[in-house]
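Q: I'm writing a short explainer about Undecaprenyl-phosphate mannosyltransferase for a general audience and would like to include a description of its predicted shape. Could you first generate the structure from this sequence?
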Amino acid sequence: MPDPVRNHTAPQETSSPTNSSHWLTALPVYNEVKYLDDVLDQVLRHSDRILVVDDGSTDGTADKLDGRQKAMPDRIDVIHHTQNRGYGAGLQSAFGYTLDHGYAGLVTLDCDGQHQPHRIPSFIEAAAAADIVSGSRYLKKYEGDDEPPAERMSINRRITAELNERLGFELTDAFCGFKAYSAAALRAMTITNNGYAMPLELWVQAAAAKLRVIELPVPLIYLDLERSFGGSLDQAETRLKYYNEVLEGAIESVRQEGRLPDTVC
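A: Of course. Here's the predicted structure. Afterward I'll give you a sentence or two in plain language.
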């Protein structure tokens, strides 16, 4: 049986080319030297062109990336941030590169082993019916799913529920980094948050632009349970407070621009 998908907005008349040769796959990375080669090898089997955004890594990731790019200049591109700017900043660089180089769309996935590159074609295929295809670790139960850290799941559920209530979505996973975006969707959004709260701004921007969103199920994989969010954000309540502040700020921004959808409260 095919994996279920979930639509979150009414269909609109848009076109989304699904030829994978016109799509870019991007990986934001920061100190991922132990996963990099394996993940790149897998992505290369399912994507014609890859962009890796190195966000100021200090563990040898940058040198390894340069070696891989030199060996496959027709398949791999690299952007280096001179210092660590944040997860959202890495994705912003990927968004800009996608539009600047005329790709039809962009698939993003993390480089820490959480996402399975063989699913890239499914995301591109699903993008024929959506502006954003967002992975969900909670839409379907897979055999062998890992148990997520309790505080991360709790925050995800609370923030996802608030997004649904305030923006009119029916999301099940607000924070999954495995996504596909049409170029039109990227042009319709203005993303400025550099950190891990960037998805909250993205969802507000998507609602303001009335983008069509589909969730695609992906397995729940955690290989690094000790991954840090940075400083005080490792404390769950501090992180939740920060996420709520970013959400409020993003909603206020579209309100001031006169782009507040009827669904937003």
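A: For your explainer, you could say: The domain at 21-256 is CATH 3.90.550.10 (Spore Coat Polysaccharide Biosynthesis Protein SpsA; Chain A).
Q: Perfect, that's easy to follow.
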